[in-house]
Amino acid sequence: MKPELKELKLLKKEYGDVKYYLDFKTPFQLLVGVILSAQCTDEVANRVLQELFKKYKTPKDFAAMPLSKLENLIKSTGFYKNKAKGIKNASKMLIEKFHGKVPDNMEDLLKLPSIGRKSANVILQNAFNKVEGIVVDTHVVRLSRRLGWSSSPNADKIEQDLIKVFPRKEWLHLPHLLKAHGKKVCTSKPKCDVCVLSSLCPKLI
Ligand code: SF4
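Above: inputs. Below: predicted complex with iron/sulfur cluster.
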């Protein structure tokens, strides 16, 4: 068995069936959630997202809301000015180009303001059950490099390196497992002495 697959097996044993962390009811709520969650803890992003959608639910609601009001509502997620602009501009584009619906394909998702490949993968996987790539967030970047799975600092290149190594059936859960491990053990100051991967990991820190 490839060392990467052995490491994946150990992570599965350690963390089990880790789920995606944002709670959402519609693809649009997920889209807003992924914008809010940038540079923000899962807990805060989720709390603000739930509060926001008690009153506002559709791209029309967000496109019509004054920018300053939206900024205030999402302030605690940080970088709120850019995020508010992103949410409003994406809402407007959904109305103008996509009949008010979140597209279910990579090409169109990437046309939306504030949506890059990572966010598009998150939306496709979690809202539409389409696994076309691997979500590469900061945890996946850090751990992939430390584990020697990729030597690139570039998220798109790392995604391609991981796609070559891991079978498609693992693409959805791999980032969830790496995030769980990255938050608990392989943090910015890694706890290699208690890590389940220690005997296999080259520790390229
Ligand atoms: S051995 Fe250290 S560097 Fe490697 S995955 Fe574990 S904590 Fe991270």
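The pocket of iron/sulfur cluster is lined by residues 146-147, 185-186, 190-192, 195, 197-198, 201, 203, 205 (CB under 6 Å).
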